[in-house]
Amino acid sequence: MPEVLLLRSASSILRTAFLSRWLPGGPRCVHKLSFVRNLQCRQGVRLNVRSSSLTDRQPLSKESLNHALELSVPEKVNNAQWDAPEEALWTTRADGRVRLRIDPSCPQLPYTVHRMFYEALDKYGDLIALGFKRQDKWEHISYSQYYLLARRAAKGFLKLGLKQAHSVAILGFNSPEWFFSAVGTVFAGGIVTGIYTTSSPEACQYIAYDCCANVIMVDTQKQLEKILKIWKQLPHLKAVVIY
């Protein structure tokens, strides 16, 4: 049996089990991930949604949310930022820059997915964002919880070595963790790449190589085994995470 170490990344981002053996074709980086096991929750704040197993049956507090927001307030958009000299309307490079198609009659400046999500919290923070069934029971995640979980996923991906304009590939069925991974990837400056669960190892290798995946998320042992077979052919891959 491989030795299992429980490590905690910076700021209690997430709890990860590292298998300390050199896996075929890859580093010692297969992780079993719980997005929210280390969330610090204080009492005295009541959300308008039922708690979820993803938050250990405890609602995320306003204090933890406010602390996260203090660290992530989007900077005001500088008009000069959008006066870049790029003229091309398209690019094939993941890190390429293009001229934005902005109608002269539109007064709204472009802004990021993170800023859009952040500003939505004022209106919808305590409302239900996701509903899902676990053990035949409906559970719900609010927009505020969604935001915090996505931020923690983003920090985890950066800790695992995600580089800007590189990808997190997600190989799993529809689930809340799929969406936390996807939004977290965007928050971290990466590119989300979905892989069909029915894809062969060869198809997974082609997609993961083409998108320069630094991290691959899988939902089952079966999907993990596909990646282990092709790890040698994925030079950018730094970690595989089982959620």
UniProtKB/TrEMBL annotation:
Gene3D superfamilies membership: N-terminal domain of ligase-like
GO annotations of cellular component type: cytoplasm
Record keywords: ATP-binding, Cytoplasm, Fatty acid metabolism, Ligase, Lipid metabolism, Membrane, Nucleotide-binding, Phosphoprotein
InterPro entries (UniProt xref): AMP-dep_synth/lig_dom, ANL_N_sf
EC number: 6.2.1.3
Localization of this protein: Cytoplasm
Record Pfam families: AMP-binding
The organism's place on the tree of life at top rank: Eukaryota
Catalyzed reaction equations: a long-chain fatty acid + ATP + CoA = a long-chain fatty acyl-CoA + AMP + diphosphate
Domain AMP-dependent synthetase/ligase: 119-242
Protein name: long-chain-fatty-acid--CoA ligase
Species of the source: Homo sapiens (Human)
Lineage of origin: Eukaryota, Metazoa, Chordata, Craniata, Vertebrata
